Amino acid sequence: MQTTPRNFFDAIARVAAARPDATFLLLPGRASASFRDTMAAACRFAHVLADAGVRPGDRVMVQAGKNAEAIFLYLACLRAGAVYVPLNTAYTPAEVSYFIGDAEPKLFVTTPAGRERVAAIAPGLTVLTLSDDGQGGTLPEQAAGQSTVFPDADVGMNDLASILYTSGTTGRSKGAMLSHGNLWSNAETLRDIWHFTDKDVLLHALPIFHIHGLFVATNVSLLAGAKMVLLPKFEPDAIFEWLPQATVLMGVPTFYTRLLQDPRLSRETTGHMRLFISGSAPLLAETHRQWQARTGHAILERYGMTETNMIASNPYEGDRVPGSVGYALPGVSVRIADDAGSPLPPGAVGMIEVRGPNVFQGYWRMPDKTKEEFRKDGFFITGDLGTQEPDGRIRIVGRGKDLIITGGFNVYPKEIESLIDEIAGVSESAVIGLPHDDFGEGVTAVCVCEKGAALTEQQVLAALRDRLAKFKQPKRVLFVDDLPRNTMGKVQKNLLRDIYRDLYGKG
Ligand code: AMP
């Protein structure tokens, strides 16, 4: 009988040992890497970490490109018991300086071009480099010739595997501490409910500094013994080049809206695919419908966050309902609660709270912040507002901080956005609250029109008039070419609120 793995690396090593010659990574322009190659590289990289003085529990901070070696480095950290701390490649030196001060890494891995920047920020910090294609730099140089045997680190499922900094649109970015057990339980669950096997080939076009590309995509593929096509970034030409070899695509909603604009997307080009998954930001119901009409595939939408890994998913078999994120994952408890944490009846809008083996260990060096965001009974307060139907199906209505309070009434932006998005000629919309003398906040719609469509403010207001209570109707409708989005495709409502702050006077 199989014993329980000691830590997450052990779980991965067992899968790899069962299929050493099978391909794990398919790499554009390079030879692929088998599971044996991958595990051997992880050992060599783990020796480099040890030579740099990294011991179990030490942080290894990484701000580098997306390549096979970055995956080997992640695995080396798991193997050596180090804590992997990837950073968004867009972070500026000032932001990196904060992360270094906060996490106090033992080692920093960056691109050759980034070396001087890090040295200027933290003169005493050991820095290794990794070129964008992964094949150059001091890290792979030092790894060459190292042993492919590495002593097991004494780490268990409760030890930290990673710290991921939250995107921090309000206040300081916080380091979410994820244990080996958090990653293991979530990846096993997702592999099973999404029916991942070693026959699968995942088209991987997401960044690997975020939970979606790093943990959901990579960990699930590893535990399934599947293959992964590691594309440096999302780019439709590369997607269509590799699509014939793939079985699954994981994406943020913008992948799907962009692919829908491509004439190559058809039933023929996607007929062999097993699954399209979307997450990290809300998938428009319209995108879901268009995708199904064009390809015959119903996109499977799931919901999660850095602090909790994945929380809910639409079913693999059964209805994948547009606008819903499905059901709590097996072993994960979700409740909709009021401000005091008491469960609300089905259908009521409230805070989504979650408890389970997927939920993180707290914010790094922020015990007070951690305490604030957990209920006494262990439920984590996600900050997302949602509803749950009697059968458990979850819908997200928006971030709590995006809730609009106008004239004392609560307005949930998602409800208005969904109606606006249905208006012919509207491609998408964001509804925000702006300071308003009379109402506290004025409901404001920011719309993007479809190419060639020319809508007016009056037309949008007229289309909403009979469909929404007066207090929910936008006071103004503005038009923009694009909504501001972050790298994960999330609409940055905080930026919109800043831009239009004085729309109704000085509030
Ligand atoms: P992050 O920690 O960057 O992954 O962001 C997590 C947040 O993204 C969640 O708290 C939600 O607000 C949002 N999110 C993730 N998946 C979805 C989804 N399927 N629909 C709507 N919002 C989502």
What does this protein look like?
This protein is an alpha/beta fold. The protein is built from 16 helices and 24 strands. The strands form six sheets. It has a nine-stranded mixed beta sheet with strand order 2-1-10-9-11-12-13-14-15. A four-stranded parallel beta sheet has the order 4-3-5-6, sandwiched between helices. Helix 1 (8-18) crosses helix 8 and helix 7 crosses helix 8. Bound molecules: adenosine monophosphate. Adenosine monophosphate is lined by residues 166-167, 211, 279-282, 301, 303-306, 325, 382, 384, 396, 399, 488. The site of adenosine monophosphate (AMP) has 18 residues, from strand 13, strand 18 and strand 19.
